[in-house]
Structure formats: structure tokens, C-alpha cells
Amino acid sequence: MSSRENIKDLGLTKQREVILQVIREADEHLTANEIFDKAKQLLPGISFATVYNSLRFLKESGHIGEISFGNGASRFDAMASRHDHALCTKCGKLVDMEIELPNEVINFAAQFSKFKLESIELTLRGLCPECSK
Ligand SMILES: [Zn+2]
Ligand SMILES: [Zn+2]
After folding, report:
1. Ligand 2 centre and the CA of 23: distance in Å?
2. Residues less than 5 Å from ion ligand 2, measured at CB
3. How many CA atoms lie within 13 A of 17 on its CB side?
4. Any idea which fold 7-77 has?
5. What is the pTM of this model?
6. Nearest bound ligand to CA 127?
């Protein structure tokens, strides 16, 4: 994992700072609604629109990542660089992992889809340790 810049050194507005802090301090990948709830505790009066716009800004400037699985709300990720996830199909727990995919797999995927490949992410689905007990 790359070292993280100090939030205070990023020159962000107070709202964006608080939102980035919420995302970094969470041990889970939060949805915009969850981020809004936590941000409100730190900055009462912050609006959902501000949270939403800040999330867009933080994502576009590379401070956070966004993950969506097609259905359901997207979740925000303190890790902006490429990485993979394991998703629990029972409780929805989402865990970061970094897996080095063999080139054959990547090339096969590109050939199969006929896409010009930019990135590839792996999502493992199954039961987390708590749910498989
Ligand atoms: Zn689970
Ligand atoms: Zn992640």
C-alpha cells in the first residue's frame, strides 16, 4: 500500500477534509449515505449534496476509489490505486486484497472481450469467516 499524504497537507476545504477522514478511518467501504451519517457527526449542518459533490471531487483527484457492483449503491474506498476485493454474499462485507494476475489471464480477458484493456479487477464472492462459521 502506498503511503498516504497527510490530509492537512492536501489543501482541501474543511468539508472535503472531513469526508476524506471518514473514508480513511472506516475499516469498511462505505456508501455515500454512510459517509453522510458519519460526516454529520463531525460537521453538523453538512448537506448530502456537499458530501456527494465532495466524493466526486475526491475521486476525480485520485484521493479515493469508487466501487460499484452494478446493483446497489456504490461504495467508496480509501485506497485509490488498483486493487481487488472479496465480497461476502451473505453480509456484504467487502475486503481489500491485492492479487497479481498472470499475464495470460489478462491477455485472455482482453482477447475474449475484444476490449482494449485499461484495467482489470478481481472480485472474489463467497462467505466471509464470520458468515461461514
Ligand atoms: Zn459475511
Ligand atoms: Zn478496496
Report:
1. 11
2. 77, 79, 96
3. 11
4. Arc Repressor Mutant, subunit A (1.10.10)
5. 0.81
6. 1
